[in-house]
Design goal:
Elements: E1 4-5, H1 8-30, E2 35-41, H2 45-60, E3 64-70, H3 76-87, E4 94-97, H4 107-113, H5 125-132, H6 141-153, E5 161-165, H7 172-181, E6 185-189, H8 196-200, E7 205-208, E8 226-229, E9 233-236, E10 245-248, H9 253-256, E11 262-263, H10 271-290
Parallel strand pairs: 1-11, 2-3, 2-4, 5-6, 5-7, 7-8, 8-11
Antiparallel strand pairs: 9-10
Length: 298
């Protein structure tokens, strides 16, 4: 068996296209243009690239993009004041503070200060609690993208055994909650799980989100399972030249694709879904704040 390769790049492009159509309809019918504000503190090169790409994608779907770049020595209170200012701005429907932030700033305080209604990263405790309670809220972008890809390749996931390797607030826990909401039987596994390979091998849906390069081996995968690899790890690539690296996931892709029914590659799998789902959340947030029915079936 050779697995179906799940093309996250193509799915994300289609999702962005559908979002753009809904944005145009909002503008035409309600005079409403969703706005996304992204705040970057400092000069981290990777973060600068992410922020630039988010701005480009936001404008491409017809949304307003607001970018705020603050110096690395910005105080915590100054950043929180900027967040409160954006909370009060009616033209801003979604707020994202690019993490990591410098050491003098508490990441949790930033998350807590963002209005839950504008928390398009889905990290505020109110949104996490709503997800855990089965209520509508804004869902963290990467987990939402994982679920979309799973449902795209599996017609019915109710009753399936799902194993999530990783228990972070950003990915592991919300992915598990989303799968529970879809009536899967969910196990959250982690570094201290006894006989992790055996636990993983029982999964119809296996989500790897641990941040350890190629940790999940081919014999950890149940034949025919759907494997979602959230990992983004750089490892040495001497074949490319001295000092060169390549990007790999948390799954040994070459081995796992010979066993799995469907699998996401790295890069090109989950990664492209994150920005697309950020736009999805901004659209949903704008509709809810305006009292307009949010689009379904995106």
């Amino acid at each position: 068996m050779t697995a179906r390769i799940i093309d996250g790049k193509a799915y994300a492009a289609g999702l962005r296209g559908r979002i753009g159509e809904h944005v145009a309809r909002l503008q035409k019918d309600h005079g409403l243009t969703p706005g996304l504000a992204v705040v970057l503190v400092g000069n981290d090169p990777a973060s600068e690239v992410y922020v630039r790409n988010k701005g480009i994608a936001t404008k491409e779907v017809g949304m307003n993009s607001f970018e705020f770049k603050l110096p690395a020595d910005t105080s915590e209170e100054d950043l929180l004041a900027k967040v409160r200012e954006l909370n009060a701005d009616p033209s801003v429907h979604g707020i994202l503070v690019q993490f990591p932030v410098p050491d003098q700033i508490s990441q949790q305080k930033v998350i807590d200060t963002i209005s839950p209604d504008k928390d398009v990263d889905g990290l505020h405790p109110v949104n996490a609690g709503r997800l855990a309670s089965g209520l509508d809220g804004l869902v963290s972008c990467t987990p939402l993208g994982c679920l979309m890809l799973i449902k795209d390749v599996m017609a019915d996931i109710a009753g399936k055994n799902a194993v999530v390797i990783g228990r972070s607030n950003l990915v592991g826990k919300p992915v598990a909650q989303l799968l529970l909401k879809e009536n899967c039987t969910v196990t959250i596994a982690h570094s201290r799980t006894a006989d992790l390979a055996k636990v993983a091998a029982g999964a119809d849906i296996l989500v790897a989100a641990v941040g350890r390069a190629q940790m999940v081996k081919g014999d950890w995968v149940k034949p025919g399972a759907t494997v979602i690899d959230v990992g983004m790890n750089r490892i040495p690539a001497p074949e490319k030249g001295e000092g060169k690296t390549r990007l790999v996931g948390d799954v040994d892709f070459a081995a796992a694709k010979e066993v799995a029914g469907a699998i996401t590659p790295v890069p090109g799998g989950v990664g492209p879904m994150t920005i697309a789902c950020l736009l999805h959340n901004t659209l949903i947030a704008a509709c809810r704040q305006a009292g307009i029915a949010a689009p379904e079936g995106l």
